[in-house]
Amino acid sequence: MDQPDSDGFIVIRAKGRRQRKPKTKAQHHGKAQNSLFSTSAEHHDPRQVTRHIEAVSDKKSTLCQGAFHEKLAAILQALHDFGPEETVVYGIGTFSSEQSQWQLALVLLLNQTLNTRILAYDPVLSSNDLAVLAHFDIETISENEQARRTAQRRTLFYMPHCERELYENVVDANNNSAAQLEMIAILGNRLSRYIDVDNGQLARVSPSLCRVLPKLTTMELPDEKLLCLRHRPFAFSDTCFQRILAPTSSAVA
Question: What is the pTM of this model?
Fold first, then answer.
């Protein structure tokens, strides 16, 4: 997902039923086990799905090579230390986008080490996209949770280039205790950047996010330049692994 206003989520700011108008994720962009998505996935284009699966697999192979993968080892170790039992993917986009293909390739690569259940949701997912997710044994979430999922177990939230409001919702949904916050980790935008972007208004627009920033530990993903590609995908720009730790906990190294 390229720009924060292009991920297609509708952020609920007040109670009540509102009309959904998903935006299109044009540039940056599980088995499907619920009835809504599994029905839609039946009407996919097999040739297009195969092309997308092959593209994702090729990109995953690229991520496994060279300097990028060597630098990724630190992230893999931090993820291993966190020990998630579940990975929730928000805002992955449509796999007709190369950026989304790279982002899916990364979470698949990481999960080779983590071996977690993966669930995904994005309002822009097409029947072809759902078939791609099903191929990789990724379950689809049946409704737009607005990223307000309370972790029942240690959970990695993979949220490449999502809106600030969605990060706020994830943190707020898990902000009932320090122990609950330590059950989540976020692989997504560098959250500390919103302090500058919002010109001191973060406490008003994202109070939960503002409260946890002093407890945040951050590790950057390797620079895409290390992939040595002719054209950079810009799929992981400003993407970091982040945990919210109590003061007595040891920071991510």
Answer: 0.82
